[in-house]
Every structure is written in structure tokens, then in C-alpha cells.
Queue: 4 jobs
Job 1
Amino acid sequence: MKIKIDAIDTLFFKDGKPFTMGEEVWANSMFPPPPSVIYGALRSHYFGLHPEVISKAGTSDDPTKDLVLNFFGIAVDGEVMFPTPLNLLFRKDAESDENNLIKTELVEFNGVSNYAYKYQLQSEQNEKVDSVSGSYLNGNSLTEYLFRTDKGLNALPLSQFISDEPKTGIGRSNSTRSAEDGKLFRTGMKRPSVKKESGE
């Protein structure tokens, strides 16, 4: 079974850092969220549609007890994307998204340093590079990477299909429904730039 989730508005998934309204003004967002967030959302949606069985939640008779997420990821224009392996590097001066990755090799570290490991990742190419953290590649590029072909590899930074959109909010009193002093805050919302899907 596959489930697709299309975002039609901004998204906000709070990271694990504690946030106290009134003491802090910025709430950090993360994307994509952990699979546990999607798992919880699916269960909540089910019980929202079937409130008559909500008393069974968390019991041996829980109708969602067999729910398992085998895969959770991002799709761009219907194509599943995968996190870029961290032993690749971005070409900083690449003129396009084609062939914009550099492979690294595991080499023995011979320098004098407090470096705790015997080996390090190193590229033989003398180019300016950047980290691939937060970027994604498609299935074809992942296959080429896994089979170590000589074909060009390319990845897309998350910013190409998810944009940041700061928003401002204010805490309200539950009793008066009016704004409370000192509870102005800002959040980093995420807006999909192109069609995006999550699958199970």
C-alpha cells in the first residue's frame, strides 16, 4: 500500500529543541520530519475518522497496531528522491545541476593531529567543494553511485523544492482569547516549491 501526501500550504515540524513561549522568540523547524511524525499523523487521522474506536488506542485491540512504515521519503514531480550519501561533495563552481557531485575515497590519514581516526575521506580532484548535507538525488544517480560507475552524478539541494517562509505569531490567553504580553514568536515555515509526495 502506498500513501501520498501533497502539501497545499506551509508546513511546520518542530525540532527536538525545547521551546518556551515568552522566553524565546524563534521556534526551529525541520524538514523532512522523522518517520515517527508521519506514523503518528496517520494514526491520528484514522481515529479522527473512526472516533468510536478511539478507546482501543494503545491496547491489544488497537486497529492501527499493525501499521508499519516501510519507507518514508520525498518525491519531486512523482520521482522518489533519496538523501545524498555524505561521502560525496558538491562542486562549488558547477555551472548546472548536471554532474555536480565529486566522489571521495577512503585514504589513510598520515598527518600529525589529534584526529581520532586512522582513515579520512579525500577527493583526488583539486576543486572547491561544499557539503551535500540536506540534498537529494534521484534513483538513477543513486544506482550509479552504488555501482560506482563513471557516469556523472548530480543532486539537488532541498532549497530547490522547499523554501523557507518565516511567520510571526502571538500567544493568546485561553480564558480571554486575547493576546498575552511577551508571547510574540516567529517560526520557520516550509513551503513546497514543486509537487512533493511522501510514500509508505
Note: Residues 195-200 have pLDDT under 50 and may be disordered.
Job 2
Amino acid sequence: MNIDQIQYIVEIAKTKSLIAAANNLYITQSALSQSISNLEAELGIKIFTRSRNGTIPTANGKFVIKKAIEILTKLQEIKDEAQACSNILNSELRVESIPIGMASLVRAVSHFKQDYPHTKFQITQNNSSVILQDLREKKSDLGLIAIKKGHLTHLHEFIFEPLTEGKIVVGVGKNHPLAKKNSISSQELLKHPIVLYEEKHVQEFIQEFEKKVGSLQAMFTTNNSAAILTTLHEGLGITFGYDISFLHASIFENDVIPIEISDFEQEPIIFGWIQLKNTEKSLVSKQFKKRFMNNFIFPTLG
């Protein structure tokens, strides 16, 4: 038995005709008939019978044809996987992330390149709103964003894969007078200069906070994490950010201390992968997300 014979019996079963099958397979009818006769002799069973209705499988033939279809399906899967792996070798992936994911992204890229050295990566840091817009405009392929739990239903054109959950806390330099506190009241926060990262949910938090508590002493807003870190190091101000970012992001190391806000209720924020629908099946993005999870240092959901 060989692959050609397996293809032959499946094609005959489809067409119920030796002539039609031979035409579709680009071989002569006599060659096809001889090949099937050889296969039947090898197996010791009759696979087809001829009738007015065409070339019809026998009871034993139906079993053989079923197995033949399974074999051809598996062969196609092998071909598809091999082709996909070949495509990865020469592919490009554009990934955008909020600051919290950058360290894990860099490690994932490094590991990925060991197996697929010719894959090209473009890694960009942005806030969640810009990432969503870039995905819509197809400037990026994959994003790591933060989104409020209640807003997940708004992502109609996207596929979102949640990774972990967090909330907004206060971040202070390790030598700041507040660094020894485990929590801080809303009113006390009004006394300190604030530097803010340009992130949608942080901005929404600030708006809600000022509406309910009072105006903060805002120094500046930036999308540069290093500028915020310098401000905190030198004790010039404090900041707001995601709790897991202060605890795990490599840029902050142990230099930034997170402090809970004791008396301000807030909606949970979900961190996760986001892609446009119909792009989540990309093999390179699937493989990269797997590598990322091996380097993701935060507790996952579920």
C-alpha cells in the first residue's frame, strides 16, 4: 500500500466512477484499475463493486476508505504545519505593550529568536488607547493592554485573552517619607506633587478621584517611564500606576514602593492580549504568545 493508492480509493469513493476519478487524478483508467486491483489483492478484500449506480464501496471497502480519509487528513495537517513553520522563519510580528509587559516581551523575543532567528520583531511601548487604534489601523499585529473589567464587552472587533488582574495604587520612591506606609488615605494624597503616566485608565482614575476627593497637585503627564522613575528617585513627587507594574516591572526594580489607597473604591483592571478578529489564528502570534507566557511573571487568571 502506498499514498497514491490511498488517494485513489478516496477519489473513487467521491466520484463513484473510475473514469471521473482517473481524470481528476491525471492517470489512465487502466492504470487506476490495476492499482486498485493490486491493493485489493494485498489486503485480501474487495474494496469496490461495479453497479448501475457506479463504482460503489463494499462493506469492507467503507471501513478502508474511512481510514484512508483519516490518513490523508493527517498528511495534510503535517504539510500545513511544515508550511506554517516555514512561514514563521520569514515572518514579521509587530507587538505593542503598555510598560508592564515590556520586560517579559523582551525575554520572550530573545527565546523565540533562538528557534526562529530570521523572524523580525518590532516592539513598541504605548498606552492602551494608542495600541487599540494602531491595531484597528493595522499598524500592529498584537497588543498587550489594560482594560476595565466592565469595558470588555466594548471590544467588538477584537479577540481579547485575559492574563491577570490588577488595580491602581500609589507609587513612591524607596526613600520617600510615605515609603514605610502600607496604605494611604485619599485626603493625604492631595498634599503631594503627582507625576502621571499617559495611560487611559490612569487618567480615568485621576478624573474620578478628583471629582470625588479634590484636585491633585499634578506636576506633569508623560509616556516616558524613565522620567517618572527619575522624579520618584529624587523624591520630587509620587505617582499612580498598576500594582503589578510596581511589583514586577524590571524598570522599577525595588526602587518604587506601591501603597494601597485605603478609602477609594475602584473597578478591577484586566491585563491581556488583544488582536483584531481573524488575525488570532496567525501561527507566529500563537507561538509567540506561548513563549511570552513562559516568561510572564505575574499570577494568571483562572
Note: The chain is about 45% helix and 25% strand.
Job 3
Amino acid sequence: MLHNIGMALYKEKKYDGAIEFYERSLAVHEKFDPLNHNGIAVVLINIGNVLYQQSKYDEAIDFYQRALAIHETYGPFNHVSVAGCLIDIGHSLKGKEKFNEALAFYNRALDFYEKHS
């Protein structure tokens, strides 16, 4: 429920409210359902998306990397999610005008897609 409210606020571009509900959702997942790695990763990505929209690229990267680490540790829940994390990190790096680093993440995403498609 908390996550869904966050999603609705995100779609309305009410980013401060969205992040509040995503953070509450994350806290609930971590406390009561810590083995739901996919659910936690999804919330982390959505928090990263809010931060990206707010041009808080370093913070967004931190959340995307946490989600990516979950996928790498517990196995990808789907290959699109892993590549999506890599692309999201690339977009954030591009926002910071770190184009070579962004390109490296885009290439990692492409390699991942090619290996798992």
C-alpha cells in the first residue's frame, strides 16, 4: 500500500511525498519481509528514480547500486531489472556529465542483455 501511494505521487510529480512513502515502504520491507529481495530492490530503484528526477544524481546512484547489489547477490529476478539498474546508473552519470562513465554502464547493460536474451 505504501509503495502504491508513492507510485501515485511520483506520477503526479509530487516527489517529496513519493520519496516519503517509498522510504516508509522500504522500512516495512526491511523489518517485516527482509527475504523479499525483489520487493526491496524495486523500492530502492523507485527511490533512485525520485532522486534522479530531483537531479540528486549521487544519491540516486547510491540507491541504484544498492538494488543492483541485491540482484547480483541473490540472483537476478529478471534480466531486465539488472540491465535497468545499469542503465539508471548510466543516466545518473550522464546527468553529472560523466559521459565516459555513463557509457561504460550502458555497455554493461547491453552486454548483460546480449548474454541473457
Note: Helices lie at 2-11, 15-32, 37-53, 57-74, 79-95, 99-116.
Job 4
Amino acid sequence: KGFNTNSFLKFFGGMNKGRPNSEDLRNAAEFASNLE
């Protein structure tokens, strides 16, 4: 676990301004739960 931290930061930090929004956070939480 934790190997995706950098890619998550790049994804959320490098996308459009105003992100992450609530939908992005919901998708990220769902994705993270799928990794376990």
C-alpha cells in the first residue's frame, strides 16, 4: 500500500484548476477501496 501516493498527487495536482472536487474525491475513494 502507498505505492500510488505520488501518482495520486500528480493526478490531483496536475489536472484542471478547481480539482479535486467532490466527484474526484468520491472516485478516488472508490478506486482506493478497490485496490485493497
Note: Residues 5-35 form one domain.
